[in-house]
Please model this.
Amino acid sequence: MRRRFGLWVAPLSNLRPADGIVVLLLLAVLGFGVHLASSAPPTISGPVIRLNPSALPYYAALSFLRMLGAYVLSMVFSLVYGYVAARVPGAERLLMPVLDILQSVPILSYLPVVLLSLTAVLPVALAVEISAVLLIFTSQAWNLTFSFYQALRTEPDELREATSVFRLGAWLRLSTLELPFATGGLVWNTMMSWAGGWFFLMAAETFRVGTRDFRLPGLGSYLQTAADQGNVPQILLALATLVALIVALDQMVWRPLLVWADRFKLDTVEGEESAESWFYDLLSRSSLVEFFGRRIWGPAAERVDTLLARPRVRPSKPREVRSAAWAGWVLGAVLMVLLVLGGVQAFRLLFQLPLSDLRRILLAALASLLRVGLAIGISALWTVPVGVAIGSNKRLSDFLGPIVQVVASIPATALFPVILLIFLALPGGLNAAAVLLMLLGAQWYVLFNVIAGASAIPQDLRYTTDILGLSRLERWRTLILPSLFPYLITGLITASGGAWNATIIAEYVQFAGQTRSTLGLGALIAEATGRGDYALLLGSTLTMVVVVLVINRFVWRRLYRLAADRYRMD
Model:
């Protein structure tokens, strides 16, 4: 470890020009989407959701397939985006501000634009399915991307030097060093991504915009329909189905993945206890799995390694270079025209905002910022000690791991009406309930990353602290907190995005035929969505993006650099 953990205050710096460019691009895209949305069908009817228990397996399968499709898309995006941002010179200056903005844009604020835009150019059924997958994707992708990027930036120097000594190319370096080193964080963030996906599943499958009903058959719509009808037995049955699906995934997917990921830990000595999984043991004894690995997977992996590791040097012909340059200029010109048209539409909408709405937006931004800060602070207070305990103790991990998975995956949106009824009778009312829902949407990002960081601490370093007889406080200051620091920053960044996303659900609630709201950007976005007020929607969303971008630039980005420069395992 390069230095001890102590207080560090980052000096403020000016925002980079790339941040302004990214905001302008986002404005143009949203403006172009609003223009397309105006051509959407005026009325859309959703399917009838049957509350018969026999329909639950079918609905559960549909929801699982949407989650799986979104996760595959998220993983591909995360690996490509994180690699380019960390390895391509100069790419980080543009891609990381883009990622900051993407993970801070509230999912439910641009879902109406995406849905209406797609229904204007695609069949309604296909447009709604694509939009649902994209919504779940945005709740899964960002923490995976940050985790992979953080792993690439914090690789030990001696391992990098070893790959240089052996003259490994980009592909072999990725497959033998970078992916294995990132595996632990990716596995834990995969579990977090699925938990976040379940959180937004209900919104993805039950979305409405005015007279347009974008419902989809699935567990989320089943839960929402049962809640609307006050059918408590069906709510409990749907929740039991969801819990059963989550437990099955934990035992048959996540626990085996954790056992498999154990082989990539940076340990020079073997730990006293290793992770266990009955299903992993069952698979390892299967002759079919052994045959698949020896005859199919192994040869295929070797062929891919040989193909991608082969150097390809082919001189480009002048004609090909000129053709590629012309193609690039034409594509750039087309994109510029589209962005200009979208930007004009966006600015036209923003100029329609009255001065009173601008004042509301600024006050709402301050109120939401205070709630998000409180939720993140509470998250860090309890998740750090609990996460270290789970990640450092195998028995505790075996006992609490499945429980954490289940609790984190139960959509808090399904429980929020009950939470609201309790808190409305207490001091603070909806404000306290809103902070609690943001907490439920943010805390798991921190917890899962802390668990990943604690489980990645090499066993030999733990033995060293025992030999030196360090006190518990000294052990936390010299080993645990420095080791957790990169993972904790990743968790806090993604938790911040999760809390901002949850503001829309937490600050504007429709329950029992009544609408309850409190001052906040989320309430303004939800109100604008319900009224079809695209000017207020765009202004509120843009304000949220700018606030989060400033925080990320002045706080999180500098802490990321600190983690990469001073708190890596060397």
